[in-house]
Amino acid sequence: MRDGVWAIASPIPGGPPPYTLTYVLEGSDGIRIVDPGWSGEANLRALRSSLADIGFALHDVRAVVATHHHPDHLGIAPRLRELSGARIIMSADERTVLAHQVRPERRDPRLYRLQLEAWGVPDDRQGDMIRSFTDGPPLILDVEPDAVVGDGDELDWPGHSLRVVMTPGHTDGHLCLVDADRAVVYTGDHVLPGINSGIGLGTLGRSNPLADYLASLERLAPYDDWLILPGHEQPFEGLRARRAVLTAHHLRRTAEVMRLLPELGEATVWEYASRLPWTAGWSGLRGFGLHSALLQTERHLVLVREGHAEDLLGRVADAQG
Ligand SMILES: [Zn+2]
C-alpha cells in the first residue's frame, strides 16, 4: 500500500462482504495490525501465510487496533493476543458499547421479539428474523481491550505515527486512524468505496447515529486528497467525492421519509420501510438484511419525527454551498 504498510484480504465465512481488509504495519520491533478480521482457522491460515510472505510470523504481532467492535474487524484479535501477547486497542467509547452489547439480556430472543413488535413486523415474518438472530454466528464478542484511546490520541510506534479521529455513526465508538507521514487514512467501515455501511449498528441508545455519521463524514474533509485504506472492498482515492455520495444517499433517504410523513403519520417502521426503495427490493430482504433495513428506517424516522430533519437537510445544503 505504502512503504511498510501491507493489506491482507481476511476471509469472512458467510459474507458478503467476502473479506475484511486487514492492514499490517511493519516496524523495527515487529508488526502492528489494524482490523485483524474474523475469528477462526481460515483467517488464521490467511494471516499466517501472508505474514510469512513479508518475513513475519504471528508471534511478531505487537498490537492490534480495531476500528470498531464488529466480528469481521475485531474477531480474531483475542486469538492473536494469545499467540503473541499483542495488546488489543480500541476506542474508549467502543469499549463501552461492547460492554453494553454483551449483557446477556441483549441476546435474549424474547427481547428481540419485543423489538420486532415495536417495529410492526407482521407475525408471519417474525420467525425468520428471530432465527437469524439466534442461529447466526455471535455478532458480539466479549473482548476486554488492553488499552483504550480517544479523539486526538497519538499511537507512536516504530515506523508509524497514527492519530485517532473519532468517527461515530456506524457504531458509537468507531475510530479512524490518520498517518500524516504517508498521507493515508485507515477508515474501517466509516467510509467504504462502494458499500453504504449501516448506521447505528452498536449504540448506547441515547445517541443520534445518523446525525453523528454525517458529522463524522465532515471530520474527514482535511484528508480528501489522501489514500483511503477502508475495511472492505479496495483502497481508493477521491474521498471528497465519496463523502458527497454518502451524504447525499442518507439525506435522500431522510427526504423520502419526510415525504411519506403526511400520508403515513404515526404508522409503524415496517409500513414506512415497505414504501421505500431498497437495492435488493423490499420483498427480497430477509434475516439480517431486513433487520438492518428496519433499523436504518427507524433512524431516519426518529430524525424526522423529532423535527431535526429540516435542520439537517438545510445545514448540509449550506455546507455544500
Ligand atoms: Zn465490516
Description:
The structure is a single chain. The protein is α/β, with parallel strands linked by helices and 321 residues long. It has 2 domains: 193 residues, Ribonuclease Z/Hydroxyacylglutathione hydrolase-like (Metallo-beta-lactamase, Chain A); 113 residues, no CATH class. The chain contains 11 helices and 11 strands. The strands form 2 sheets. A 6-stranded mixed β-sheet has the order 1-2-3-4-5-6. It has a 5-stranded mixed β-sheet with strand order 7-8-9-10-11, with no helix packed on it. Helix 7 runs antiparallel to helix 8. It is globular and about 65 Å long. The two termini are 34 Å apart.
Span between N and C termini? 34 Å
What shape does the CA trace take? Answer: globular
- The CATH homologous superfamily of the largest domain corresponds to Ribonuclease Z/Hydroxyacylglutathione hydrolase-like
Counting structural domains, the number is 2
Helix coverage percent: 40-55%
- Count of alpha/pi helices: 11
Uncertain runs are: none
Order of helical and strand elements: EEEHEHHEHHHEEEEEHEHHHH
Average pLDDT, to the nearest integer?
A: 91
What key phrases describe this protein's structure?
single chain; 321 residues; alpha/beta; Metallo-beta-lactamase, Chain A; 6-stranded mixed beta sheet; 5-stranded mixed beta sheet; 41% helix; globular; binds zinc ion
